[in-house]
Amino acid sequence: MIRRVLENGRVASMQPGAEGYAPRPARLLIEGEVIADCLAPDEDLPDGFRDAPAEDLGGRLVTPALIDCHTHLVYGGSRAEEFEMRLNGASYEEVARAGGGIVSTVEATRAASEDVLLAGALRRADRLIAEGVTTIEIKSGYGLDRDTELRMLRVARRVARERAVDVVTSFLGAHAIPKGQDADRYIDEICIPALRDAAAEGLVDAVDGFCENIAFTPPQIARVFDAAAVLGLPVKLHAEQLSDLGGAVLVAERGGLSADHLEYLGAEGIAAMADAGTVAVMLPGAFYTLRETQLPPVEALRNAGVRMAVATDSNPGSAPMSSLLLAMNMSATLFRMTPEETLRGATANAAAALGLNDRGRIAKGLRADLAIWDAETPAELTYRIGDAPLYTRYYKGTPC
Questions:
Q1: Could you give the percent of the chain with pLDDT greater than 90?
Q2: HSE-up of residue 218 (Cα within 13 Å, Cβ side)
Q3: 3-state SS of the chain?
Q4: Residue 183: φ, ψ to 5°
Q5: In whole angstroms, what separates CA 86 from the centre of its chain?
Q6: CA-wise closest residue to 312 among 329, 334, 327, 328
Q7: Are the C-beta atoms of 92 and 294 separated by less than 8 Å?
Q8: Nearest 5°: phi and psi at 381?
Q9: Which residues 6+ apart lie within 8 Å of 212 measured at CB?
Q10: Pairing mode, if any, of strands 133-139 and 66-68?
Q11: Which of 45, 55, 66, 365 is deepest in the core (most CB within 10 A)?
Q12: At what angle do helices 146-162 and 114-129 cross, to 10 degrees?
């Protein structure tokens, strides 16, 4: 088993409490894929590490590697024309009801081969990797038929085989109502059977949905969640982005991993999420692109003790971005999250939003997924705009 010593680093472990955000001088010991220990600079190396290769980090900042816990990286086509429509005054709902929005991406995705979808997804994944990301969640949802939904999930699995990154997949068959179809019939005859087939093929890690006036109602989403429960799959939900339909309460009552967007989240949803431990995922890229004005209730979530994650929501329509650092900056400038909250949101809380307890923090026994930065303080990672000061990242204990 390969052992490594990382000397002369300043470690922000992102463990709970203010001390987890404050960098402290440390030497990190890596054994195989995990962190063997985090020692003070003057502590003696234990047996087995005295002759291990050592790297001098030159006083650089070390954090857990970043985690993008909400993306739609696999898709076909572009929606630049719709972006222009919105700039000329059309709302998100008006674009969707005119046959654009998600439906236009569905057509392009259905027409794309697996190799074409993979090439696009890898380009976007590479941008995230260059910012210190080692875990990416990728959703389906642009197929809305069995074959395309499964093809998207197969592509997501291939991303993990092609790159030094973990991919967590979410089945998002309940993303939009296909043109000309009845919503209930689609859920029962296409979405849920496709979910079962995807699970049988080992393509699904979690189940997602879009609970909104232009998508699916809580009772319809509940049927999808019932199917997920039978399959033993955790759930999450796009909730309260455009209105408050009670999606956050629904997903929290099911013990869901996360509720995402949440601009219109009310007190009942906040209380339910706090009770269930459901993570609130902030997606400022969509807020920015759609020129929204209704802010998610960050202060109320903070006061209720709800953990907040930050993600790109990388997608062709409402968040055509592939920068998690930019999402962190937007969460601070637009949503008034603190730099500590944004970094926790892209590390420890992002891991929680994916149900992963082996990463997102620097501690003995956890995965040695690390980001090493040319930065003086952790706040710089949120402060900079369009600048990724990554020196190197470690993925499963290996620099890459």
A1: 91
A2: 14
A3: CCEEEEEEEEECCCCCCHHHCCCEEEEEEEECCEEEEEECCCCCCCCCCCCCCEEECCCCEEEECEEECCCCCCCCCCCHHHHHHHHCCCCHHHHHHCCCCHHHHHHHHHHCCHHHHHHHHHHHHHHHHCCCEEEEEEECCCCCCHHHHHHHHHHHHHHHHHCCCEEEEEEEEECCCCCCCCHHHHHHHHHHHHHHHHHHCCCCCEEEEEECCCCECHHHHHHHHHHHHHHCCCEEEEECCCCCCCHHHHHHHCCCCEEEECCCCCHHHHHHHHHHCCEEEECHHHHHHCCCCCCCCHHHHHHHCCCEEECCCCCCCCCCCCCHHHHHHHHHHCCCCCHHHHHHHCCHHHHHHCCCCCCCCCCCCCECCEEEECCCCCHHHHHCCCCCCEEEEEECCEEC
A4: -60, -45
A5: 25
A6: 327
A7: no
A8: -70, -30
A9: 238, 241, 242, 243, 245, 247
A10: parallel
A11: 66
A12: 40
Integer Cα distance of 369 and 118 in angstroms: 24
What's the CA dihedral at 145, 163, 121, 330 to 10 degrees?
A: 120
Q: Is the dihedral of CA 86, 247, 182, 149 positive or negative?
A: positive
CB 381 within 8 A of CB 373: yes
pLDDT at 99: 67
Tell me what the mean pLDDT of segment 57-83 comes to. Answer: 95
Q: In terms of Cα–Cα distance, which of 263, 272, 269 is closest to 243?
A: 263
Average pLDDT, whole number, for the chain?
96
**Of 10, 14, 93, residue with least CA distance to 343:** 14
Residue found by looking up tokens 């995965």 in the block: 367
Question: Tokens 């802010």 map to which residue?
Answer: 295
Q: Is the Cα torsion angle 275, 230, 220, 320 positive or negative in sign?
A: positive
Q: Which of 39, 54, 133 is nearest to 369 (CA)?
A: 133
Pairing of strands 166-174, 236-239: unpaired
* Each residue's pLDDT tens digit, 313-322: 999 999 999 9
For residues 38 and 29, what is the distance between their CA atoms, to the nearest angstrom?
A: 6
Cut 0.90: pTM above it? yes
